[in-house]
Amino acid sequence: MRKISMMIAVVLAFSLILVACGKGNGGNNTPPSTSPSSTPSDTNSTPPAEDDITQKKVSISIYYPTPDRVEDRALEDDKIKRFNEVFPNVEIIKSDWQYNPNEIGIKMGANEAPTLFNTYASEGKFLAEKGWAADITDLFNAYEYKDQMNPLLQDLFTLNGKVFGIAQRGYPTGVTVNKKMLDDKNVPIPAFDWTWDDMLNAAKAVAEPSAGISGIAPMGKENASGWNWTNFLFTAGGEILDVKDGKVTAAFNSEAGLKALEYYNKLKWEANAIPEDWALDWVNAVGAFAQGRTAMVIAGPDGPVDQALNQGGMSPDDILVYPIPAYQKGGKHYGVLGGDFLVINPNASKDEQAIAFYYATFDYFSDKGLESLERNIQERQAQNKFYAPAVFQYFKPDAEYGAKVTALFNKYDNVYQYGEETLRLIDGKAESPYNTQDYYAAMTNVVQEVFSKKGVDMKAELDNTAKFVQEKFYDAIQP
Question: What's the burial of 255, exposed, middle or buried (CB within 10 Å: 0-12/13-18/19+)?
């Protein structure tokens, strides 16, 4: 478990940033050579010509945002342009592949994975153990800003002292609420320190099933469904698994797990508060929120906020970001801690890996990166669009760089600001390091059973699923 509430007060001072922020010297210093002993700031020694990657033709393929993320693509295009101005010897190839745990093995086996690809917070151990993430410990240790990286995020990809990924941005899962929908139905706005009952009552009151309007749209499809449900497992006091005496044991079929599943059952069968077509993945659930077809959605906050503002045409005043509700008054508001990370392909050459690392961190702690972000915010403003920062960023909350970020965001009224009370209450808990996506997939089957059939034996469903996960995955683990 990673408790983050103590860090929130500091995070408040630093509204957060997407990956486009970066390196203090604007990315114009000497890149890391292929020798681990050379650091990016070591300008007093010049590596031999045969080891100097600035003198070699190198091609790398990179993660490129999906077509719907127009503004993010603009940021990446600007970064590529500026990188090539400094390193014209490097060819940057845009990859349209989006990380999928069910595809990564095939991509690696066929040598088709990008040199630098994005992944989820849960995948560090999985990718490292499979040999699908390069060990970048030497590159990271040579990085002049390594001590300023946010350990809350960066440590998720640091295993047994070795580094396998680069933090970009992060979040504790929360609940985004359409305030206008509640106001239009004269539904009282819940306190931010809310409970399960507060959420259920608000969702029930605002729902209008005959008009296709739901009070809340918990994801009911793909691994996202198990991921959404786990937030309630955590707030009820449960755990995904236990590790004791060298054995990993499924623990989600606990009393807390049963409470969380019973709560989902109430949302569906007692409150009639979820969509009739509840089999929604992340894209469709967040899309339903942006389109005003549901009053609440459970996700990392910046995604729903961005879509509601820029695609749904909603006003910032109509969007409230809440922590996950506590099980009961005074309880914890745990949200699954997630984030975006960049991983380097272990099949890439040493030169390609070095360039990929330098590209990934090119804008980090950078005034040039801030300038690029400011242009992006200004362009959005001219188009009546908004910028929704991530809740956590790649650098430490108390980093000096954060003051620059805060000052930039405070200049513009089209930057969404998270509420002070939300940031004070919101709390994060890390995902399991073992077979997380497999567990999510298994729990999705249980959620679908509860949503599709009335009167399901929920305890039996949890026990059977825990037995399956235990025998299929956990029994083979040696921590």
Answer: exposed
